[in-house]
Predict the 3D structure of the following.
Amino acid sequence: MKRRRFLTSAATALVLAPVGFGLSGRFASAASRPRLEMPPLLDTRQTGRVSLAAAAGNMKLPEGPASPTAGFNQDFLGPTIIMQNGPLAAEVGNNLDEAISVHWHGLMVPGDHDGGPHLPVRPGQRWSPDMNIAQQPATAWYHSHVHGRTAEQVYSGLAGVIHVTDGRDADRGLPVDYGIDDLTLVLQDRRFDRFGRMVYDPSMMDVMHGFMGNRMLVNGQAGAVAAVPAGFVRLRLLNGSNARSYTLSFDDGRMMHLIATDGGFLPAPVDLSVLGLAPGERAEILVDFSGGGAPVLMSGIEQPFGVLEFGVDDTIPVRITSLPEELGPELEDLAGTEIRTRRISLDMGMGGMMMGGGFAINQRPFAMDRIDLEVALGTVERWIVRSAMIAHPFHVHGAFFRVASENGAPPRPENLGWKDTVLVAGETEIVVRFDQPAGSSKPFMFHCHILEHEDAGMMGQFTVS
Ligand code: C2O
Ligand code: CU
Ligand code: CU
């Protein structure tokens, strides 16, 4: 696979219209715009319970009509769930008129609790897994995962963020005040028609590239400004988009100090001026706002567009004024412990462009009744993942991995930590540790996290026993 091809398709995929921006690519007048809100908090640490109910809702742009949406416990998206290690009794209800599921993306739970395509919650039914959380602190998320319906359901709003915490972040010198200096940011592009209605009507080309929007939403809001104190602020970024990968940077060039990836903390912050974030990935960064100003988080190199504007608010107390030196334990190097190597190709078959088909893994489109791989519980494997035509974000359920190489080179800095999703543009080698069991009736999935690709068949399933 030639590198140039990826660069070209990435550039042509950047069609986000600069709605809400001046021609310079900056937002128009900040003063009149609403303040960014966080999703409501659902703290499970005292109760040991979490209850989510999917229901229909609606949302509107400031200037537009209402569009139908779906959400958990609210109109669009769901609460931010805070959890700690230990038992967690979950309950998922469904007030929609079609089956949904709740997959815990980034929680290390067995196949029976994973919430994937084999665990649909039909209208009016309930799913109540008694889970046990046992993992490092991390930012994870949850979303519906019914086969063939994932893309539209997540687009409609059936997704939310999870914070797994050990209560020690203040000791680590990290911001901990939700919505004050610890911001949860769900990045999603959505397509609005000329009347301002949010639409999901993928053409064959949209399925090929994944469905892209023409407007940025953060936490379901368009054009809002994030108020921050004049100190270090923690941003927990989730790319909850169906298909768009972001290349994030600040318009004034300020550093992003990467502190955590999908699976948890890095040993120490890593300074980045550009951060790639593909669908399904999370990253936690610290940003220093002590200089004041109104920096804009942008995405894209050639045709950058604004993702979120920040406004320093001097009335917000400053708590963190320096960068912590140490965050988490040294990352365990899995390389050398693999018991086998597998090759995984993410296929968009020839002629697929014409026929709207050809989405497969190792030539086989997803089938609910076929187990593709069998993995031994407690082992480590090396997977060599290749992508066809365009870059594909590759995700594995029920396991974390380390990235060993990308196109023969050492991993990009944002891929140094524990991961469950990685953008594969060419060939990426990952070393995966399988600690969670999954049987053949509730297997784990591995798939492209461009949701249109996943629904079209770029997904497989595996057991761990
Ligand atoms: Cu984020 Cu299989 O999912
Ligand atoms: Cu997942
Ligand atoms: Cu894909």
User: Anything to note?
Assistant: The chain has three domains: 41-164, 172-312, 340-464. The radius of gyration is 21 Å. The pocket of copper (II) ion (ligand 3) is lined by residues 346, 392, 448, 450, 453, 458 (CB under 6 Å). The chain has five helices and 32 strands.
